[in-house]
Design brief:
There is one protein chain. With 210 residues, this protein is of the alpha/beta class. It is 20% helix and 30% strand. The chain has six helices and 14 strands. The strands form three sheets. It has a six-stranded mixed sheet, with helices on one face. A hairpin with a 4-residue loop joins strand 9 and strand 10. It starts with a strand and ends in a 5-residue tail after the last helix. The structure holds zinc ion (ZN) (2 copies).
Length: 210
């Protein structure tokens, strides 16, 4: 029982794309599909899973690049994003700042809000709004296993950049303090880039939280 997490490290920015599988129902969700999404599609098809939702921590292009490929292959999957990141989505996720051109597919149909409960099969995830890296950045809390999927809010030994449009270092620090550091220290952080860490480890060793 529970949620199984399969991690893919994809593309030139080493994005972590997470495939969540509810073992009781074979329903699945994908968090932040990045480049080379064909690997995720293959895994979903091999295990004969039913893709319910594509959950986006924020709309930077490297976290949404694979949405079009996934929805083309699995048209019934709903796409979720916080509405405050819709302008970023419409602008291609800031891809032009990196010399790329990306046009996202149809608009997201799930509009995230703080404390929203998402259901995947028999499991529940809670959305927490964590602005600072972008205006509509969210994280997903899976309380039964003490896990958060935290996108570009915080990393092992680092925090999200705030120099891109919509960024605010004051808001980022507030989001980390209120939504991450209030969790039990053994809570594991599955970030948008880099290895898994814990709340306790970051409290003790992250130089940006000193
Ligand atoms: Zn980002
Ligand atoms: Zn990122």
């Amino acid at each position: 029982m529970g949620l199984e997490i399969i991690t893919f490290v994809l593309g030139p920015l080493q994005n972590n794309t997470y495939l969540l599988r509810d073992s009781a129902s074979d329903q699945c969700a994908v968090i932040d599909p990045s480049f080379d999404t064909i690997e995720v599609i293959d895994a979903i098809e091999k295990q004969q899973l039913s893709l319910q939702m594509i959950l986006l921590t924020h709309a930077h292009f490297d976290h949404i690049y694979g949405v079009g490929e996934l929805t083309a292959r699995f048209p019934a999957a709903a796409v979720g994003l916080h509405p405050a990141d819709l302008p970023l989505w419409r602008q291609g996720g800031g891809s032009e700042l990196f010399g790329l051109k990306y046009t996202p597919p149809a608009l997201p149909t799930i509009h995230f809000y703080n404390q929203q409960q998402l259901t995947l099969g028999s499991e529940k995830l809670e959305v927490k709004h964590t602005p600072g890296h972008s205006r509509g950045h969210v994280i997903f809390h899976y309380a039964p296993d003490k896990i958060i999927f935290c996108g570009d809010l915080i990393f092992q030994g680092n925090i999200g950049r705030t120099d891109l449009p919509g960024g605010s270092s004051r808001e980022l620090m507030h989001s980390i303090q209120m939504q991450v550091l209030t969790l039990p220290p053994e809570t594991r952080l599955f970030s948008g880039h880099g290895p898994v860490t814990t709340v306790g480890r970051e409290m003790e060793t992250n130089p940006y939280l000193a």
